[in-house]
Amino acid sequence: MNANERANLARALPPGRELPERREQQIKDFVMAEIHRSAEPARPRLRLPRPMLVLPVAAAAMALVIAFGLGLGGAPAYAITLLDDGTIHVTLNEIRDADGLEADLRDLGVNAVVDYVPDGQRCSPQPRSTDLLPQEEARLGVWPPPQNPAGDGFTIDPAVVGPGQTAVIELSISDDERIASIWARVSNGPVAACELVVDPDHHLGPAPQS
Amino acid sequence: MTRARIREGDARAFEQLYDEFARSVYGYALRLTGDWSTAEDVMSLTFLEAWRLRERVDHDGGSLRPWLLGIATNVARNTRRASRRYHDALARLPPGDDASDFADELVERMDDKERVTALRRAYGSLRRPEQEVIALVAGSGLSYAEAAEALGTSVGTVKSRLSRARKKLKRAAGPERTWPQEYEPITREA
């Protein structure tokens, strides 16, 4: 079939529509998160105290588990693990204590703001910084994780966050309190606090440009 | 190399596969469904299915695009069944932006609006396998061999479906100078 014939046949097809770049990225984040999720073993409904759960499993594979965020009841909300390649993996056991997580990351030299965004909401205002580096310039989120940590979490590369810069991390949280997707960028300037507002589109980061 | 890595469950290789073919899968899904929102679902489900079925990728072969478009074909044929498998996952997919249907706008730009409208109506009335083969060959630019791979059928079947579909479209569209008077033979591709 020659090009003219193809073109004529194509005229019978419904008109196309370019998939907006941000929507393409959004679906990619979703697909990769689901793939990551499918690779995990089924999680027990009852969450065990994190030291019992993480350390035996991860000791062989990870360099060092250095911090646990302890809640009022003594159960750890998260664990921070330094991986061999210098990246940092954060395992979330419960969706709380973002302030503690930020403080622990700061102790590791990473100035970060972390926000949990429940389904149906988003952070406001957007964008939260006037100077966000493009992902190609500073790939903060690491996917897939260089190692295979157990549990729900995310991995970041602290090397891309320079002095005076801030890692901005928004985590989409599903109804069953798991990470649905992550949006992570590096900001050169100050970062506005996240005020959660209702948003049926549930965007992470600045809203897509269609 | 890519095939082997995907077979082994290399997520980074799969991410590259997405980067390379997401738009192609979306475009194909849109041509099959005619609805951008459904096409997004088909695209998402196609890649989730591709990951699930990754061990079926042959070690040898060329581009994986026909394989992906074949999965997209099956997903689009039965989006409801595929959605059931990934029901919980789809609930986590953020909804897309609202977008008006600009099909009419595009048609308005064409000087032969009535004819294009007739063609599209005729396309909509084609049998599903005929729509698929036109979307693959004319819309996605696959060769007959690649279309056959995507549809899991023979090159001969692809050609015969295409031939039938073109005759139906020709009848619907009527004579027109840009429409080829003679569609056969189709012999230059395998």
Describe the structure.
The complex is a heterodimer of chains A (210) and B (190). Chain A is of the alpha+beta class and 210 residues long. Chain A has one domain (19-198). Chain A contains four helices and nine strands, in the order H-H-H-E-E-E-H-E-E-E-E-E-E. In chain A, the strands form three sheets. A four-stranded antiparallel beta sheet of chain A has the order 1-2-3-6, sandwiched between helices. In chain A, strands 4-7-8 form a three-stranded mixed beta sheet. Chain A has a two-stranded antiparallel ribbon with strand order 5-9. In chain A, a hairpin with a 5-residue loop joins strand 1 and strand 2 (76-82). Chain A is elongated. Chain B has 190 residues and is mainly alpha-helical. Chain B contains eleven helices and no strands. Chain B has helices at residues 2-7, 11-33, 36-52, 65-77, 79-85, 87-91, 103-109, 113-125, 128-139, 144-151, 155-173. In chain B, helix 8 crosses helix 11 (155-173), helix 9 packs across helix 11 (155-173) and helix 10 (144-151) packs across helix 11 (155-173). Mean pLDDT of chain B is 78; it is low at 98-111 and 177-190. Chains A and B meet through helix 1 and helix 2 of A and helix 2, helix 3, helix 7, helix 8 and helix 9 of B. Chain A: This is DUF348 domain-containing protein.
